[in-house]
Amino acid sequence: MVVALVAIVFALRRTVLKPEPLEVRAIAAARGQVEESVTNSRAGTIKAERRAQISPEVGGRAVDIPHREGERVAKGDVLLRLDPNVLEGRVTLSRRELQAAAAQRDQACTNAERSRRELARLSRLAKEGIISTDVLDQAQTAVETTKSACQAAQAGVAQAQASIDLQGRQLGLTVIRAPFSGIIADLSIEVGEYTTPSPPGMPIPPVIDLIDPESVYVSAPMDEVDSARIQPGQPVRISVDSYPGRTFPGTVRRIAPYVLDREEQNRTVEIEAGFDGLPAGMRLLPGTSADVEVILETRENVLRVPTPALLEGNRVLIVENGVLVEKKLTIGLKNWDWTEVRAGLAPGDQVVTSLDRPEVKAGAEVRIGQVASP
Description:
By secondary structure, the protein is α+β, with helices and mostly antiparallel strands. The protein has 4 domains: 19-35 and 299-372, conserved putative lor/sdh protein from methanococcus maripaludis s2 fold; 38-49 and 213-298, Elongation Factor Tu (Ef-tu), domain 3 (Beta Barrel), CATH 2.40.30; 60-81 and 174-211, CATH 2.40.50.100; 85-172. Helices cover 26% and strands 36% of the residues. The chain has 3 helices and 22 strands. It has helices spanning 2-14, 85-127, 133-172; strands at residues 22-28, 30-39, 44-48, 51-54, 60-64, 72-73, 78-82, 175-177, 182-187, 194-195, 208-211, 216-223, 235-240, 247-255, 268-275, 289-306, 315-320, 323-328, 330-334, 338-343, 350-352, 366-372. Strand 13 and strand 14 (247-255) form a beta hairpin. It is rod-shaped and about 170 Å long. The two termini are 55 Å apart.
């Protein structure tokens, strides 16, 4: 009777009381692309390669501001005009000084020519013995004196002309033009307000901030341990917080020649990544946070499994005849998504990806509830 009872219990456990197999998710090991990449250790920042923070080089009162914040301007467009009256008056004064200098030059050079002719006349008289040598010496001295006076007057004319040129250049500084095409990001002056140039050693905030939104790039800090593997020209994938779920191709343009050593953070090296082209109508604002994934190496048509399916020690669980079996893998390239399998699996092996329950372990009976596409 005891043997019969044990047999009945055993039969019930194998049939009616048998626990339901665990339902797991799995993916078939298959061939595909695997990349090795590194990402920034902290959030990167979108910056504009062409950004000008402009201040006038001369002081003055603003009389015209043709464009406002947010407006797009072309290269050479007027951004700000200062009151030119004082400088125009100085230009007029310099022109009058030039006229006076020219008159003095004419007079001095005329005297020099007269002294030269007088010397020639006295030289002939001296040969005939009509005048003394002393009179001839005085005439020669007069020639040298008037010649120097003529040269000084000519220099005075050149100085007056240079003064006009200088005043004209300063007058030109009252008009500020866009050095490149872009958008006015900030404007801190209004018509009627007075502005002065920054004195040496005392910077003054700029009055106009001009940005070219088409020249954006990403500056991102990378961990120092990856600095030797990152090289200019390597491809990158850029993700921007303002466009979730999308990535944009780019290229490493520059690597900083030094490592930042700050107490409040890990040591990092800054890299600059440029976009390989943005979709039409897309706008990336400077200052937006972004992430950069530098692609170090790519291998095509290799056996791969999802990286989240790996257990500690490069192990995976596969489904064989409804039972979980543990496999030890030899891996190659690896990233957040995929891991290259060099040995330990065959194409088509069902690798378990739902590892969030403690009962999912080797020896457990399972059934595959969802098969993901490789």
